[in-house]
């Protein structure tokens, strides 16, 4: 066993390097003073200042934030309702259909999901833009929110709910005063996960967007077709930092949620 530690360590370092070294290089060259992304010209924050003066990227960034916040909120609401139905209602007509609908986006290729939603919006006569992208992201992220909230509901001690019911509290009061505070960390983790997935999406947004509704990943992808610039590196670095902060927050909330309560 001891003889296998070194090869395993080398394989682990190689795998992590393959995944994260390009990201580290991108972040490093976002502070490059040179206009050439492959030539280091010294440390500089010039391209971050240039990014703040780029109206197209700034507009795309704020659009992505609005879409992500709204879609994450709707996905968390729908995911909570679906999780409650699957965990608390036992067997009911349509349970299998609901469970399959929740799990489908997890295994469905994003290209298929995006194309299906595009055909739906075209068939319904909806003008593609902010709302179609938001609906598409709700469709994508609701399943993830459902799984997170469902896991919290399954692991929750129901004795407090039963005690509140024994004391005469109606169902709505039990949910508002007992169930909701107990699953609140799960709701926060679900929201943060849905927010991250929406903010990072490119494929589905490219199918469902329209004029005047270009998200930041789409804007970056369009810009790099003409060549990567330090300004794009700066925008990507900010996006990476934002996603990393959200993921760390979601991880901390999830760990806190799993800690035993004294």
Describe, in plain words, how this protein is organized in 3D.
- By secondary structure, the chain is mainly α.
- The protein has a single domain, classed as MetI-like (MetI-like fold), CATH 1.10.3720.
- The chain has 11 helices and no strands.
- α3 runs antiparallel to α8 and α8 packs antiparallel against α11.
- The two termini are about 40 Å apart.
- The model has no long low-confidence stretch (mean pLDDT about 85).
Keywords:
262 residues; mainly alpha; MetI-like fold; 11 helices; 0% strand
Write the layout of secondary structure elements.
Layout: H1 5-29, H2 46-52, H3 55-88, H4 95-107, H5 110-124, H6 130-154, H7 159-166, H8 171-200, H9 203-208, H10 216-224, H11 230-258
Helix pairs in contact: 2-11, 3-6, 3-8, 3-10, 4-6, 6-8, 7-8, 8-11
CATH class: Mainly Alpha
Largest sheet composition: none
What gyration radius follows from the Cα positions, in whole Å?
22 Å
Strand content: under 5%
Report the strand count. Answer: 0
What is the general shape?
globular
CATH superfamily: MetI-like
CATH architectural grouping = Orthogonal Bundle
Could you give the order of the helices and strands? Answer: HHHHHHHHHHH
Question: What is the domain total for the residues?
Answer: 1
- List the total number of helices: 11
Using the coordinates shown, work out and report the CATH topology. Answer: MetI-like fold
Helix content estimate: over 70%
Average residue pLDDT: 83
């Amino acid at each position: 066993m001891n003889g296998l530690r070194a090869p395993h360590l080398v394989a682990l370092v190689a795998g992590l390097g393959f995944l994260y070294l390009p990201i580290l290089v991108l972040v490093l060259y976002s502070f490059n003073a040179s206009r050439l992304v492959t030539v280091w010209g010294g440390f500089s924050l010039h391209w971050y200042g240039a990014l703040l003066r780029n109206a197209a990227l700034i507009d795309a960034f704020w659009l992505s934030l609005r879409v992500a916040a709204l879609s994450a909120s709707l996905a968390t609401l729908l995911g909570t309702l679906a999780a409650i139905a699957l965990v608390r209602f036992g067997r009911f007509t349509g349970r299998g259909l609901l469970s399959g609908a929740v799990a489908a986006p997890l295994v469905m290729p994003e290209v298929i999901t995006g194309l299906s939603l595009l055909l739906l919006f075209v068939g319904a006569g909806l003008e593609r833009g902010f709302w179609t992208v938001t609906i598409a992201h709700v469709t994508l992220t609701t399943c993830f929110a459902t799984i997170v909230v469902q896991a919290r509901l399954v692991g929750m001690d129901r004795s407090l709910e039963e005690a509140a019911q024994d004391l005469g509290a109606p169902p709505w009061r039990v949910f508002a005063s007992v169930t909701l505070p107990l699953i609140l960390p799960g709701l926060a983790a679900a929201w943060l996960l849905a927010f991250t997935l929406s903010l990072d999406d490119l494929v589905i947004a490219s199918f469902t967007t329209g004029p005047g509704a270009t998200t930041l990943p789409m804007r970056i992808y369009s810009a790099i077709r003409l060549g990567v610039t330090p300004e794009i590196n700066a925008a990507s670095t900010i996006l990476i930092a934002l996603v990393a902060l959200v993921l760390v927050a979601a991880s901390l909330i999830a760990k806190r949620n799993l800690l035993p309560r004294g």
